[in-house]
Design goal:
This protein has 10 helices and 11 strands. It is of the alpha/beta class. The protein has one domain: Metal-dependent hydrolases (TIM Barrel, Alpha-Beta Barrel). The strands form 2 sheets. A 9-stranded mixed β-sheet has the order 9-8-7-6-5-4-1-10-11, sandwiched between helices. A two-stranded antiparallel sheet has the order 2-3. The longest helix is centred in the last third of the chain and has 23 residues. The protein is globular and about 55 Å long. It starts with a strand and ends in a 7-residue tail after the last helix. About 45% of the residues are buried.
Amino acid sequence: MASRADIHVHSKYSGLARLNFLRFPESVNEPRDIVKQAGLAGLNLVCVTDHNTVLGGLKAKEYEKDFPGIEVIVGEEVSTRDGEILGLFLQEDVPKGLNAIETIELIRAQDGLVISPHPFSNHVPALGLKVDQLNIDGLEVLNAGHVDGYANNKAAQHAASGRWALLGGSDSHSLNTIGCAYTEFEGNGAEEFRRQIIAKKTRPGGKEMTMSQVVAWSMGVVFAADILILRSMLGGILEVDAQNPVLNKIKEIGTSKKIVALLGSMIYFTPPVPFLVGIIGERVVKRLNSVPVHEINGNTPLLN
């Protein structure tokens, strides 16, 4: 019997992204909602892989009992000096800012698996050809968030050697895209999934996000950020979740910048602005991918 796992999902614990002086949440997904949506999307497993923390995965795992049939794998998308790395089956944080070799050693020390997400992306940190030098279990050859096509095609071509497990993940930052891309494997359960990755018997499935899904994600994030900004300006943010970095960062932003952010979001919500932004963004990414920078820089020596 075939099962499905989404190897790459973000919760509200992924922190904030930066656009000039503006800050906005990488994701606003509540861990409980991720587990629920995974079931609705037809998944059997969901890997919660927040940026530089396992907190979202640990919290999501607490809700397995509420949604029978869905298992949570605790993971982390670690920011290394060489590009981003996914660690799966973790119990504690792997620190960011190390080189790839050091990061992989720490993941292995937890008996975790090592995955290269979007390995040939030119617009988010990726390992590129350095995957050839590293002890990696699998490549994410289908990342639903990379709608430009280049990164996924290049990853699939590079993985044709059979050296790595072939994996698919949504890279979801919003509930509506969970399970958009996924990994199929024979059997069921997290431990069987681990064995199938090690045996290189997994296969990617699903598809890239549609423009409508991308726009819905961006609008949802902007709206959630606006609510938090308004609450902070009105003194309504309480320390109900001190571990959530989004709340703390928004509280640190100056009042004038908050007002500018709110005005900017009002413009963004005006049709057809979000779709125009999405189309322009896709074209920019395609232009970036016209120069295969990871083929140029991929052979840079890795430091031990």
